[in-house]
Amino acid sequence: MRAVRYHEHGDESVLTPETVDRPDPAPGEALVKVEAASVNPIDTYVREGHVAPPSGLPHVGGSDLAGVVEAVGDGVTAVAPGDRVFATGLGLFSPGTYAEYTVAPVEQLAPLPEAVSFRDGAAAAMAFATAWRALVTRGDLRLGDVALIHGASGGVGHAAVQVAVAAGATVVGTARDGDPAAFARELGADAVVDYRSEDLEGDVAAATDGRAVDVVFEPQADAHLSANLARLARGGRIVVIGENGPITLDGGLPMAAKKADADLRFMSVMASPGDQAPILERVGERLADGTFTVAIDSVFGLEAAAEAQAEVLSPGTIGKVVLDTSR
User: Fold this and answer.
1) Which residues pair with 298 in a beta bridge?
2) Taking the C-alpha atoms of 228, 231, 237 and 240 in order, what is their torsion angle to the nearest 10 degrees?
3) Which residues contact 271 (CB under 8 A, 6 or more apart)?
4) Which residue among 11, 193, 240, 304 is least packed, with the fewest CB closer than 10 Å?
5) In which element (H, E) is residue 59 found?
6) How many CB atoms lie within 10 A of CB 98?
């Protein structure tokens, strides 16, 4: 079968299309014919060696998939050959998804409704599982809350906007002016501010008419933490899913945060693989009935995984990047 592996950590040039043996499912696993796999920033972190796979190298990249169950291991009854499924959180403790076939723990597979395409299922998997877990599970988002969604036009951010809207929150997003901001508004954001602003705190305050923020969805805590804390309501929650540098607090903000009972929470979809399938089952239902929609920025063939990983990190990407194994 075709697969994209790397034999050493490095930049995207280490990704190598190869022909490898098709794996066999062990007890508790299913062999899935991968129809589509999405490309996520976490895939690049694993490739670079920041989060090294315990099984060592060479390693097949990728963490999301949508496809069809081809075979099952001993004792598996939850899925059967022919079932349409999608999943996230693979590619670290199990083989990755940049391949024509992969094996996956059955508890990580969720049913993919017939009304949802394989491309949409793959694109939605990590994005919506991360957004749901960050806002609902970790952030305790409630009806009537104010939610601040950073990166509202991005792969995970555009899912977070929709999850927050569906939860009945007032949603303020951050995105570049122009098409990204317009896209976030189309998804239901009540207001969008440019994250490049020199007065992000003031712009967020103006967008909420001075009301404080209850839950912050934060993909880059080192860039926004001061502004987040300055606008946070008493007992507010900041859920951090990413940072690109040291997280520091300036001036009197630590005391201000303590007075506000600010709650800084960290999470990773890769650290909770068993939690994802129940979330994805609900996400699949909402994709099928049109409550949620997934935006796909670009689609690449399997052999173009290196180009796809470069694209997912480029500024201005709106929505998700997907690999189609049939191309």
Assistant:
1) 321
2) -10
3) none
4) 11
5) strand 59-60
6) 31
Give the 3-state secondary structure of residue 18: strand
Looking at the DSSP assignment, which residues form a beta bridge with residue 87? 65
Q: Which residues contact 138 (CB under 8 A, 6 or more apart)?
A: 237, 239, 265, 267
Under DSSP, the state recorded for 133 is I
Residue identified by tokens 């060696």 is 49
| pTM of the complete model | 0.94
CB atoms within 10 A of CB 245: 9
Residue 99 is classified by DSSP as: B
Report how far residue 321's alpha carbon sits from residue 229's, in angstroms, rounded to the nearest whole number: 32
Token pair of 319, please? 């929505």
CB 314 within 8 A of CB 44: no
Q: Are 103 and 32 in contact (CB under 8 A)?
A: yes
Residue type at 213 in one-letter notation? V
Per-residue pLDDT of 66-102, as tens digits, reads 999 999 999 999 999 999 999 999 988 888 999 999 9
DSSP state of 314: S
- For residue 309, the surrounding DSSP H or E stretch is helix 305-312
Domains within the chain, CATH numbers bracketed: 2-112+295-324 (3.90.180.10), 127-269 (3.40.50.720)
End-to-end CA distance of the chain: 14
Q: What's the token pair of residue 273?
A: 């693989």
Amino acid type, 23: P
- Is residue 286 pLDDT above 70, yes or no? yes
Host H or E run for residue 124: helix 118-132
Q: Are strands 29-39 and 65-72 parallel, antiparallel or unpaired?
A: antiparallel
Among the listed residues 6, 85, 80, 77, the one whose alpha carbon sits nearest the alpha carbon of residue 46: 6
Query: How much is the average pLDDT of 164-183?
Result: 96
Distance from C-alpha of 89 to C-alpha of 104, rounded to nearest angstrom: 10
